[in-house]
Amino acid sequence: MYRRSEPLEQGLRLETRSPGRSGGSLLDLVPVVGEETRVKPGEQEVSAPTVRQDVSPPAPTAKPNAPTVGAYFPQLHTLGSVGIDHFILWLRDGMRWIVLALVLCVAAAFIFAVTATPRYTVYTDLVVDPSNLNVVSDDVFTSNPQRDAQLLEVESKLRILTSRNVLKRVIDKLQLTNDQEFVKSSPLALLMALFSSGDSKADKELTAIRALSERVEARREERSFVVVLEVWSEEPEKAVVLSDAIVEAFEAELFQSAAESAGRVAQNLNARLDELRRNVTEAEKKVEDFRRANGLLSANGELVSNQLSSELNTQVLEAQQRLIQAETRYKQMSAAIAQGQTTSASVFESTDMTNLRQQYNALQQQIGSMQLTYGERHPRLAAARSERATLEAGINQEARRIAERAKADFDRERSALGALRAKADDEQSNVFTDNEAQVHLRDLERDARTKAAIYETHLARAQQITERQQIDTTNIRVISRAMPPNSRSWPPRTSILLIGGAVAGVAAGVALALGLGLWGYVRGSRPAAG
Protein backbone atom coordinates (compact mmCIF):
# COMPACT_ATOMS: atom_id res chain seq x y z
CA MET A 1 0.00 0.00 0.00
CA TYR A 2 1.27 3.41 -0.98
CA ARG A 3 2.03 5.68 1.97
CA ARG A 4 3.04 9.21 1.80
CA SER A 5 6.44 9.96 3.19
CA GLU A 6 6.94 12.29 6.07
CA PRO A 7 8.32 15.21 4.08
CA LEU A 8 5.45 14.92 1.63
CA GLU A 9 3.00 14.71 4.52
CA GLN A 10 4.53 17.80 5.99
CA GLY A 11 4.31 19.53 2.61
CA LEU A 12 0.64 18.67 2.44
CA ARG A 13 0.02 20.08 5.89
CA LEU A 14 2.18 23.14 5.43
CA GLU A 15 0.27 26.29 4.57
CA THR A 16 2.26 29.12 3.11
CA ARG A 17 1.27 32.63 2.26
CA SER A 18 2.62 34.70 -0.54
CA PRO A 19 4.48 37.74 0.69
CA GLY A 20 2.64 39.96 -1.72
CA ARG A 21 -0.85 38.81 -0.72
CA SER A 22 -2.84 40.04 2.21
CA GLY A 23 -5.80 38.31 3.69
CA GLY A 24 -7.07 34.82 2.96
CA SER A 25 -8.61 33.08 -0.03
CA LEU A 26 -11.40 30.57 -0.59
CA LEU A 27 -8.81 27.79 -0.62
CA ASP A 28 -8.13 28.50 3.03
CA LEU A 29 -11.63 27.33 3.86
CA VAL A 30 -10.92 23.82 2.54
CA PRO A 31 -10.49 21.45 5.51
CA VAL A 32 -7.08 19.83 5.89
CA VAL A 33 -6.18 16.34 6.88
CA GLY A 34 -6.17 15.54 10.68
CA GLU A 35 -3.19 15.95 12.87
CA GLU A 36 -2.51 12.31 13.08
CA THR A 37 -2.84 9.60 10.54
CA ARG A 38 -4.16 6.29 11.62
CA VAL A 39 -1.96 3.33 10.72
CA LYS A 40 -3.00 -0.21 10.36
CA PRO A 41 -1.78 -2.64 13.04
CA GLY A 42 1.63 -3.99 12.31
CA GLU A 43 2.79 -0.93 10.50
CA GLN A 44 5.18 1.62 11.92
CA GLU A 45 3.55 4.82 12.83
CA VAL A 46 5.51 7.87 11.83
CA SER A 47 4.51 11.17 13.24
CA ALA A 48 5.98 14.58 12.99
CA PRO A 49 5.11 17.79 14.60
CA THR A 50 2.85 19.99 12.57
CA VAL A 51 4.26 23.33 11.63
CA ARG A 52 1.89 26.25 10.95
CA GLN A 53 2.94 29.79 10.20
CA ASP A 54 -0.35 31.41 11.04
CA VAL A 55 -3.14 30.75 13.43
CA SER A 56 -6.36 29.62 11.82
CA PRO A 57 -9.61 28.47 13.35
CA PRO A 58 -9.84 24.78 14.03
CA ALA A 59 -11.30 22.71 11.24
CA PRO A 60 -14.67 21.21 11.89
CA THR A 61 -14.65 17.63 12.91
CA ALA A 62 -15.72 15.39 10.08
CA LYS A 63 -18.42 12.91 10.70
CA PRO A 64 -17.36 9.32 11.01
CA ASN A 65 -17.21 7.46 7.68
CA ALA A 66 -18.06 10.76 5.77
CA PRO A 67 -15.39 11.58 3.13
CA THR A 68 -14.51 15.26 2.67
CA VAL A 69 -13.31 17.26 -0.35
CA GLY A 70 -9.84 17.36 1.13
CA ALA A 71 -9.74 13.59 1.20
CA TYR A 72 -10.22 13.42 -2.60
CA PHE A 73 -8.21 16.53 -3.51
CA PRO A 74 -5.47 16.89 -0.93
CA GLN A 75 -3.62 19.57 -2.93
CA LEU A 76 -6.73 21.66 -3.79
CA HIS A 77 -5.92 24.27 -1.17
CA THR A 78 -2.47 24.87 -2.76
CA LEU A 79 -3.75 25.86 -6.23
CA GLY A 80 -2.74 29.42 -5.51
CA SER A 81 0.90 28.39 -5.58
CA VAL A 82 0.75 26.87 -9.09
CA GLY A 83 3.21 28.67 -11.39
CA ILE A 84 4.69 28.55 -14.85
CA ASP A 85 6.99 25.70 -13.82
CA HIS A 86 4.00 23.51 -13.17
CA PHE A 87 2.55 24.27 -16.63
CA ILE A 88 5.85 23.48 -18.35
CA LEU A 89 6.13 20.22 -16.42
CA TRP A 90 2.55 19.26 -17.29
CA LEU A 91 3.07 20.07 -20.98
CA ARG A 92 6.27 18.03 -21.05
CA ASP A 93 4.56 15.07 -19.40
CA GLY A 94 1.54 15.36 -21.76
CA MET A 95 3.50 15.74 -24.98
CA ARG A 96 2.19 12.40 -26.22
CA TRP A 97 -1.38 13.67 -25.84
CA ILE A 98 -0.54 16.84 -27.79
CA VAL A 99 0.97 14.84 -30.63
CA LEU A 100 -1.96 12.40 -30.62
CA ALA A 101 -4.51 15.25 -30.73
CA LEU A 102 -2.57 16.96 -33.52
CA VAL A 103 -2.51 13.80 -35.62
CA LEU A 104 -6.17 13.04 -35.02
CA CYS A 105 -7.34 16.59 -35.85
CA VAL A 106 -5.20 16.81 -38.99
CA ALA A 107 -6.48 13.41 -40.11
CA ALA A 108 -10.09 14.45 -39.38
CA ALA A 109 -9.58 17.69 -41.33
CA PHE A 110 -8.13 15.79 -44.28
CA ILE A 111 -10.96 13.25 -44.25
CA PHE A 112 -13.53 16.06 -44.09
CA ALA A 113 -11.84 17.89 -46.98
CA VAL A 114 -11.92 14.73 -49.09
CA THR A 115 -15.41 13.48 -48.24
CA ALA A 116 -17.35 16.73 -47.70
CA THR A 117 -19.87 17.70 -50.37
CA PRO A 118 -18.53 20.78 -52.23
CA ARG A 119 -20.61 23.91 -52.68
CA TYR A 120 -20.22 26.27 -55.62
CA THR A 121 -21.92 29.62 -55.06
CA VAL A 122 -22.90 32.09 -57.79
CA TYR A 123 -24.32 35.59 -57.47
CA THR A 124 -26.80 37.47 -59.65
CA ASP A 125 -27.50 41.20 -59.24
CA LEU A 126 -30.95 42.49 -60.16
CA VAL A 127 -32.50 45.95 -60.11
CA VAL A 128 -36.07 45.63 -58.82
CA ASP A 129 -37.62 48.98 -59.72
CA PRO A 130 -40.81 49.52 -57.68
CA SER A 131 -42.25 51.70 -60.47
CA ASN A 132 -43.56 49.56 -63.31
CA LEU A 133 -43.19 50.54 -66.95
CA ASN A 134 -45.71 53.24 -67.88
CA VAL A 135 -47.21 51.48 -70.90
CA VAL A 136 -50.80 52.48 -70.13
CA SER A 137 -51.59 55.99 -68.92
CA ASP A 138 -54.26 54.88 -66.45
CA ASP A 139 -52.92 51.49 -65.43
CA VAL A 140 -54.63 49.16 -63.00
CA PHE A 141 -51.73 49.42 -60.55
CA THR A 142 -50.61 52.78 -59.17
CA SER A 143 -47.08 53.58 -57.97
CA ASN A 144 -46.44 55.29 -54.64
CA PRO A 145 -43.75 58.00 -54.83
CA GLN A 146 -42.85 57.67 -51.13
CA ARG A 147 -39.48 55.98 -50.59
CA ASP A 148 -40.62 53.88 -47.61
CA ALA A 149 -43.49 52.48 -49.66
CA GLN A 150 -41.14 51.76 -52.54
CA LEU A 151 -38.74 49.91 -50.25
CA LEU A 152 -41.63 47.86 -48.89
CA GLU A 153 -42.63 46.97 -52.44
CA VAL A 154 -39.06 45.92 -53.25
CA GLU A 155 -38.95 43.82 -50.08
CA SER A 156 -42.23 42.18 -51.11
CA LYS A 157 -40.83 41.33 -54.53
CA LEU A 158 -37.67 40.09 -52.80
CA ARG A 159 -39.85 37.66 -50.86
CA ILE A 160 -41.46 36.54 -54.11
CA LEU A 161 -37.99 35.82 -55.52
CA THR A 162 -37.50 32.99 -53.00
CA SER A 163 -41.15 31.99 -52.73
CA ARG A 164 -42.45 28.47 -53.25
CA ASN A 165 -44.20 29.41 -56.50
CA VAL A 166 -40.93 30.54 -58.07
CA LEU A 167 -39.05 27.49 -56.80
CA LYS A 168 -41.79 25.19 -58.10
CA ARG A 169 -41.46 26.76 -61.56
CA VAL A 170 -37.70 26.07 -61.47
CA ILE A 171 -38.25 22.48 -60.33
CA ASP A 172 -40.77 21.84 -63.11
CA LYS A 173 -38.57 23.45 -65.75
CA LEU A 174 -35.31 21.71 -64.77
CA GLN A 175 -37.02 18.47 -63.58
CA LEU A 176 -35.18 18.58 -60.27
CA THR A 177 -37.38 15.83 -58.86
CA ASN A 178 -35.21 13.42 -60.88
CA ASP A 179 -31.94 15.03 -59.74
CA GLN A 180 -30.03 13.07 -57.11
CA GLU A 181 -28.66 16.29 -55.64
CA PHE A 182 -32.12 17.47 -54.64
CA VAL A 183 -33.99 14.19 -54.15
CA LYS A 184 -31.54 11.70 -52.65
CA SER A 185 -32.57 8.09 -52.84
CA SER A 186 -32.17 5.94 -49.73
CA PRO A 187 -32.24 2.14 -49.36
CA LEU A 188 -35.46 2.42 -47.36
CA ALA A 189 -37.18 4.64 -49.96
CA LEU A 190 -38.64 1.69 -51.88
CA LEU A 191 -39.83 0.00 -48.69
CA MET A 192 -41.40 3.22 -47.44
CA ALA A 193 -43.10 3.73 -50.79
CA LEU A 194 -44.77 0.33 -50.45
CA PHE A 195 -46.31 1.15 -47.08
CA SER A 196 -46.96 4.85 -47.75
CA SER A 197 -50.39 5.84 -49.04
CA GLY A 198 -49.33 9.32 -50.18
CA ASP A 199 -48.32 10.50 -53.61
CA SER A 200 -44.64 9.81 -54.25
CA LYS A 201 -44.49 12.54 -56.90
CA ALA A 202 -45.76 15.12 -54.43
CA ASP A 203 -43.27 13.91 -51.84
CA LYS A 204 -40.42 14.24 -54.31
CA GLU A 205 -41.58 17.71 -55.26
CA LEU A 206 -41.78 18.77 -51.63
CA THR A 207 -38.31 17.34 -50.98
CA ALA A 208 -36.91 19.18 -54.01
CA ILE A 209 -38.52 22.46 -52.89
CA ARG A 210 -36.98 22.11 -49.44
CA ALA A 211 -33.57 21.27 -50.86
CA LEU A 212 -33.70 24.15 -53.35
CA SER A 213 -34.89 26.64 -50.73
CA GLU A 214 -31.82 25.78 -48.62
CA ARG A 215 -29.60 26.62 -51.60
CA VAL A 216 -31.20 29.98 -52.44
CA GLU A 217 -30.81 33.24 -50.58
CA ALA A 218 -31.68 36.80 -51.61
CA ARG A 219 -30.92 40.12 -49.96
CA ARG A 220 -31.29 43.78 -50.82
CA GLU A 221 -28.31 46.08 -50.83
CA GLU A 222 -28.60 48.91 -48.34
CA ARG A 223 -30.00 52.22 -49.66
CA SER A 224 -30.69 50.83 -53.13
CA PHE A 225 -33.13 48.75 -55.16
CA VAL A 226 -30.41 46.23 -56.07
CA VAL A 227 -31.17 42.65 -55.04
CA VAL A 228 -28.40 40.04 -54.80
CA LEU A 229 -29.47 36.45 -55.52
CA GLU A 230 -27.15 33.80 -54.05
CA VAL A 231 -27.43 30.20 -55.26
CA TRP A 232 -25.15 27.27 -54.55
CA SER A 233 -24.94 23.78 -55.94
CA GLU A 234 -22.59 20.84 -56.01
CA GLU A 235 -21.61 21.68 -59.59
CA PRO A 236 -20.61 25.16 -60.80
CA GLU A 237 -22.48 24.90 -64.12
CA LYS A 238 -25.62 23.71 -62.37
CA ALA A 239 -25.44 26.68 -59.98
CA VAL A 240 -25.43 29.06 -62.96
CA VAL A 241 -28.36 27.23 -64.56
CA LEU A 242 -30.31 27.37 -61.31
CA SER A 243 -29.65 31.09 -60.90
CA ASP A 244 -30.79 31.91 -64.45
CA ALA A 245 -33.85 29.70 -64.07
CA ILE A 246 -34.82 31.41 -60.80
CA VAL A 247 -34.54 34.86 -62.42
CA GLU A 248 -36.72 33.75 -65.35
CA ALA A 249 -39.26 32.16 -63.01
CA PHE A 250 -39.29 35.32 -60.89
CA GLU A 251 -40.09 37.50 -63.91
CA ALA A 252 -42.73 35.02 -65.07
CA GLU A 253 -44.29 34.94 -61.61
CA LEU A 254 -44.50 38.74 -61.44
CA PHE A 255 -46.03 38.88 -64.92
CA GLN A 256 -48.53 36.15 -64.10
CA SER A 257 -49.45 37.86 -60.82
CA ALA A 258 -50.08 41.17 -62.60
CA ALA A 259 -51.99 39.41 -65.39
CA GLU A 260 -54.16 37.52 -62.91
CA SER A 261 -54.90 40.72 -61.00
CA ALA A 262 -55.82 42.51 -64.22
CA GLY A 263 -57.86 39.48 -65.25
CA ARG A 264 -59.85 39.59 -62.03
CA VAL A 265 -60.56 43.28 -62.59
CA ALA A 266 -61.59 42.61 -66.20
CA GLN A 267 -63.79 39.71 -65.09
CA ASN A 268 -65.54 41.88 -62.52
CA LEU A 269 -66.01 44.61 -65.11
CA ASN A 270 -67.42 42.15 -67.63
CA ALA A 271 -69.82 40.81 -65.02
CA ARG A 272 -70.87 44.38 -64.31
CA LEU A 273 -71.24 45.15 -68.04
CA ASP A 274 -74.24 42.85 -68.42
CA GLU A 275 -76.15 44.74 -65.76
CA LEU A 276 -75.07 48.11 -67.18
CA ARG A 277 -76.15 47.02 -70.65
CA ARG A 278 -79.58 46.08 -69.34
CA ASN A 279 -79.87 49.40 -67.54
CA VAL A 280 -79.01 51.32 -70.72
CA THR A 281 -81.50 49.29 -72.77
CA GLU A 282 -84.27 49.85 -70.26
CA ALA A 283 -83.54 53.59 -70.05
CA GLU A 284 -83.54 54.01 -73.83
CA LYS A 285 -86.73 51.95 -74.09
CA LYS A 286 -88.41 54.24 -71.57
CA VAL A 287 -87.41 57.24 -73.68
CA GLU A 288 -88.86 55.77 -76.86
CA ASP A 289 -92.05 54.57 -75.15
CA PHE A 290 -92.68 57.97 -73.61
CA ARG A 291 -91.97 59.70 -76.90
CA ARG A 292 -94.34 57.37 -78.76
CA ALA A 293 -97.07 57.70 -76.15
CA ASN A 294 -96.95 61.51 -76.28
CA GLY A 295 -96.30 61.80 -80.00
CA LEU A 296 -92.99 63.54 -79.47
CA LEU A 297 -91.55 63.06 -82.93
CA SER A 298 -88.22 64.75 -83.53
CA ALA A 299 -86.24 65.60 -86.63
CA ASN A 300 -82.72 67.01 -86.58
CA GLY A 301 -82.87 67.21 -82.80
CA GLU A 302 -86.11 69.27 -82.75
CA LEU A 303 -89.68 68.20 -82.15
CA VAL A 304 -91.85 67.95 -85.25
CA SER A 305 -94.60 69.89 -83.47
CA ASN A 306 -92.24 72.82 -82.96
CA GLN A 307 -91.16 72.70 -86.58
CA LEU A 308 -94.79 72.50 -87.73
CA SER A 309 -95.78 75.40 -85.48
CA SER A 310 -92.96 77.48 -86.89
CA GLU A 311 -93.95 76.65 -90.44
CA LEU A 312 -97.62 77.49 -89.71
CA ASN A 313 -96.63 80.80 -88.22
CA THR A 314 -94.63 81.54 -91.35
CA GLN A 315 -97.55 80.56 -93.53
CA VAL A 316 -99.87 82.79 -91.46
CA LEU A 317 -97.57 85.74 -92.02
CA GLU A 318 -97.39 85.04 -95.74
CA ALA A 319 -101.21 84.66 -95.89
CA GLN A 320 -101.60 87.97 -94.12
CA GLN A 321 -99.34 89.63 -96.69
CA ARG A 322 -101.27 88.07 -99.56
CA LEU A 323 -104.58 89.13 -97.97
CA ILE A 324 -103.38 92.70 -97.63
CA GLN A 325 -102.22 92.72 -101.22
CA ALA A 326 -105.53 91.24 -102.45
CA GLU A 327 -107.54 93.69 -100.36
CA THR A 328 -105.55 96.65 -101.60
CA ARG A 329 -105.86 95.54 -105.22
CA TYR A 330 -109.61 95.05 -104.88
CA LYS A 331 -110.12 98.44 -103.25
CA GLN A 332 -108.08 100.11 -106.00
CA MET A 333 -110.20 98.39 -108.66
CA SER A 334 -113.43 99.33 -106.91
CA ALA A 335 -112.31 102.96 -106.67
CA ALA A 336 -111.28 103.07 -110.37
CA ILE A 337 -114.63 101.61 -111.45
CA ALA A 338 -116.52 104.07 -109.26
CA GLN A 339 -114.50 106.99 -110.68
CA GLY A 340 -114.75 105.74 -114.29
CA GLN A 341 -111.03 105.37 -114.70
CA THR A 342 -111.06 101.84 -115.99
CA THR A 343 -109.42 102.83 -119.25
CA SER A 344 -106.40 104.38 -117.56
CA ALA A 345 -106.06 102.55 -114.23
CA SER A 346 -103.05 100.28 -114.20
CA VAL A 347 -104.55 98.01 -111.59
CA PHE A 348 -106.63 96.24 -114.21
CA GLU A 349 -104.25 93.85 -115.88
CA SER A 350 -105.28 91.12 -118.24
CA THR A 351 -104.78 90.13 -121.85
CA ASP A 352 -108.27 91.22 -122.92
CA MET A 353 -107.88 94.51 -121.08
CA THR A 354 -104.59 95.11 -122.84
CA ASN A 355 -106.15 94.43 -126.28
CA LEU A 356 -109.17 96.62 -125.54
CA ARG A 357 -106.94 99.42 -124.35
CA GLN A 358 -104.80 99.16 -127.47
CA GLN A 359 -107.93 99.32 -129.68
CA TYR A 360 -109.30 102.17 -127.61
CA ASN A 361 -106.09 104.16 -127.88
CA ALA A 362 -105.88 103.58 -131.64
CA LEU A 363 -109.52 104.60 -132.10
CA GLN A 364 -108.98 107.66 -129.93
CA GLN A 365 -106.12 108.70 -132.21
CA GLN A 366 -108.33 108.22 -135.27
CA ILE A 367 -111.09 110.35 -133.75
CA GLY A 368 -108.59 113.11 -133.06
CA SER A 369 -107.41 113.03 -136.69
CA MET A 370 -110.98 113.00 -137.98
CA GLN A 371 -111.91 115.99 -135.86
CA LEU A 372 -109.09 117.90 -137.43
CA THR A 373 -109.90 116.71 -140.96
CA TYR A 374 -113.66 116.33 -141.23
CA GLY A 375 -115.05 118.39 -138.39
CA GLU A 376 -117.39 117.54 -135.56
CA ARG A 377 -120.40 116.48 -137.59
CA HIS A 378 -118.82 114.18 -140.10
CA PRO A 379 -120.55 110.75 -140.31
CA ARG A 380 -117.31 108.83 -140.05
CA LEU A 381 -116.52 110.75 -136.89
CA ALA A 382 -119.90 109.78 -135.46
CA ALA A 383 -119.27 106.13 -136.38
CA ALA A 384 -115.85 106.30 -134.71
CA ARG A 385 -117.35 107.75 -131.59
CA SER A 386 -119.98 105.05 -131.53
CA GLU A 387 -117.20 102.43 -131.79
CA ARG A 388 -115.31 104.16 -128.96
CA ALA A 389 -118.36 103.95 -126.76
CA THR A 390 -118.55 100.27 -127.51
CA LEU A 391 -114.86 99.84 -126.55
CA GLU A 392 -115.40 101.81 -123.34
CA ALA A 393 -118.29 99.55 -122.43
CA GLY A 394 -116.09 96.53 -123.11
CA ILE A 395 -113.31 97.99 -120.97
CA ASN A 396 -115.73 98.67 -118.12
CA GLN A 397 -117.11 95.17 -118.40
CA GLU A 398 -113.56 93.70 -118.37
CA ALA A 399 -112.67 95.90 -115.41
CA ARG A 400 -115.68 94.67 -113.42
CA ARG A 401 -114.76 91.09 -114.29
CA ILE A 402 -111.21 91.67 -113.09
CA ALA A 403 -112.56 93.35 -109.96
CA GLU A 404 -114.82 90.39 -109.27
CA ARG A 405 -111.87 88.04 -109.66
CA ALA A 406 -109.84 90.25 -107.33
CA LYS A 407 -112.70 90.13 -104.82
CA ALA A 408 -112.72 86.32 -105.08
CA ASP A 409 -108.98 86.26 -104.47
CA PHE A 410 -109.47 88.56 -101.50
CA ASP A 411 -112.16 86.30 -100.06
CA ARG A 412 -110.01 83.20 -100.66
CA GLU A 413 -106.99 84.73 -98.97
CA ARG A 414 -109.12 85.81 -96.05
CA SER A 415 -110.51 82.30 -95.66
CA ALA A 416 -107.05 80.80 -96.00
CA LEU A 417 -105.71 83.16 -93.38
CA GLY A 418 -108.47 82.19 -90.99
CA ALA A 419 -107.84 78.51 -91.54
CA LEU A 420 -104.10 78.94 -91.04
CA ARG A 421 -104.64 80.93 -87.89
CA ALA A 422 -106.95 78.29 -86.48
CA LYS A 423 -104.47 75.56 -87.36
CA ALA A 424 -101.60 77.58 -85.90
CA ASP A 425 -103.54 78.09 -82.70
CA ASP A 426 -104.21 74.37 -82.44
CA GLU A 427 -100.60 73.53 -83.15
CA GLN A 428 -99.50 76.10 -80.60
CA SER A 429 -101.49 74.33 -77.90
CA ASN A 430 -99.89 71.05 -79.01
CA VAL A 431 -96.49 72.69 -78.71
CA PHE A 432 -97.21 73.73 -75.13
CA THR A 433 -98.36 70.20 -74.34
CA ASP A 434 -95.31 68.71 -76.05
CA ASN A 435 -92.99 71.10 -74.22
CA GLU A 436 -94.42 69.99 -70.90
CA ALA A 437 -93.93 66.36 -71.91
CA GLN A 438 -90.49 67.16 -73.23
CA VAL A 439 -89.40 68.20 -69.73
CA HIS A 440 -89.94 64.64 -68.54
CA LEU A 441 -88.50 63.34 -71.80
CA ARG A 442 -85.27 65.27 -71.27
CA ASP A 443 -85.04 63.78 -67.77
CA LEU A 444 -85.37 60.30 -69.24
CA GLU A 445 -82.84 61.14 -71.95
CA ARG A 446 -80.34 62.42 -69.37
CA ASP A 447 -80.73 59.22 -67.39
CA ALA A 448 -80.26 57.17 -70.53
CA ARG A 449 -77.19 59.21 -71.60
CA THR A 450 -75.63 58.87 -68.13
CA LYS A 451 -76.14 55.13 -68.06
CA ALA A 452 -74.86 54.84 -71.62
CA ALA A 453 -71.75 56.87 -70.74
CA ILE A 454 -71.06 54.66 -67.71
CA TYR A 455 -71.58 51.57 -69.81
CA GLU A 456 -69.27 52.81 -72.56
CA THR A 457 -66.61 53.75 -70.00
CA HIS A 458 -66.74 50.33 -68.36
CA LEU A 459 -66.76 48.62 -71.73
CA ALA A 460 -63.69 50.52 -72.93
CA ARG A 461 -61.94 49.94 -69.58
CA ALA A 462 -62.70 46.22 -69.67
CA GLN A 463 -61.30 45.92 -73.18
CA GLN A 464 -58.24 47.95 -72.20
CA ILE A 465 -57.54 45.83 -69.12
CA THR A 466 -58.08 42.66 -71.15
CA GLU A 467 -55.36 43.82 -73.53
CA ARG A 468 -53.26 44.88 -70.53
CA GLN A 469 -53.05 41.22 -69.51
CA GLN A 470 -50.87 40.57 -72.54
CA ILE A 471 -48.36 43.35 -71.69
CA ASP A 472 -45.49 42.78 -69.26
CA THR A 473 -44.89 46.02 -67.36
CA THR A 474 -42.61 44.65 -64.63
CA ASN A 475 -39.39 46.64 -64.44
CA ILE A 476 -36.87 43.94 -63.51
CA ARG A 477 -33.35 44.22 -64.96
CA VAL A 478 -30.41 41.88 -64.50
CA ILE A 479 -27.25 43.97 -64.15
CA SER A 480 -24.84 41.11 -63.35
CA ARG A 481 -25.54 37.58 -64.49
CA ALA A 482 -24.21 34.52 -62.68
CA MET A 483 -20.77 33.28 -63.73
CA PRO A 484 -19.25 29.84 -63.01
CA PRO A 485 -17.05 30.16 -59.90
CA ASN A 486 -13.36 29.26 -60.07
CA SER A 487 -13.33 27.53 -56.68
CA ARG A 488 -15.76 26.06 -54.23
CA SER A 489 -17.24 28.18 -51.48
CA TRP A 490 -17.50 25.28 -49.02
CA PRO A 491 -15.60 23.52 -47.60
CA PRO A 492 -12.46 25.69 -47.58
CA ARG A 493 -9.36 24.57 -49.40
CA THR A 494 -7.58 21.47 -48.12
CA SER A 495 -4.51 23.42 -47.02
CA ILE A 496 -6.64 25.77 -44.92
CA LEU A 497 -8.49 22.82 -43.39
CA LEU A 498 -5.18 21.07 -42.55
CA ILE A 499 -3.81 24.22 -40.95
CA GLY A 500 -7.02 24.67 -38.99
CA GLY A 501 -6.97 21.03 -37.95
CA ALA A 502 -3.37 21.37 -36.80
CA VAL A 503 -4.16 24.46 -34.75
CA ALA A 504 -7.23 22.80 -33.25
CA GLY A 505 -5.24 19.62 -32.52
CA VAL A 506 -2.47 21.54 -30.77
CA ALA A 507 -5.00 23.51 -28.76
CA ALA A 508 -6.88 20.37 -27.80
CA GLY A 509 -3.66 18.52 -26.88
CA VAL A 510 -2.42 21.42 -24.78
CA ALA A 511 -5.74 21.65 -23.02
CA LEU A 512 -5.76 17.91 -22.40
CA ALA A 513 -2.18 17.89 -21.11
CA LEU A 514 -2.81 20.82 -18.77
CA GLY A 515 -6.05 19.26 -17.60
CA LEU A 516 -4.38 15.93 -16.81
CA GLY A 517 -1.48 17.67 -15.08
CA LEU A 518 -3.82 19.77 -12.97
CA TRP A 519 -5.88 16.69 -12.11
CA GLY A 520 -2.84 14.80 -10.96
CA TYR A 521 -1.65 17.79 -8.97
CA VAL A 522 -4.83 18.30 -6.97
CA ARG A 523 -5.16 14.54 -6.45
CA GLY A 524 -1.66 14.48 -5.04
CA SER A 525 -0.53 11.69 -7.32
CA ARG A 526 2.28 13.82 -8.77
CA PRO A 527 4.95 15.75 -6.95
CA ALA A 528 4.91 19.50 -7.23
CA ALA A 529 7.40 21.16 -9.51
CA GLY A 530 10.62 21.81 -7.61
UniProtKB/TrEMBL annotation:
It is a multi-pass membrane protein. Residues 1-18 have a biased composition (Basic and acidic residues). It comes from Sinorhizobium americanum. Residues 91-174 form the Polysaccharide chain length determinant N-terminal domain. Residues 1-25, 38-63 are annotated as: Disordered. Residues 439-514 form the Tyrosine-protein kinase G-rich domain. Residues 259-373 form a coiled coil. The chain crosses the membrane at residues 97-116, 496-522. This is Succinoglycan biosynthesis transport protein ExoP. InterPro entries: Bact_polysacc_biosynth/exp, GNVR, LPS_length_determ_N. It is found in: Cell membrane. It holds the Pfam family Wzz. The gene is exoP. Keywords: Cell membrane, Coiled coil, Membrane, Plasmid, Transmembrane, Transmembrane helix. It comes from the Bacteria. The keyword Metal-binding does not apply. One of its GO terms (cellular component) is plasma membrane. GO terms for molecular function: protein tyrosine kinase activity.
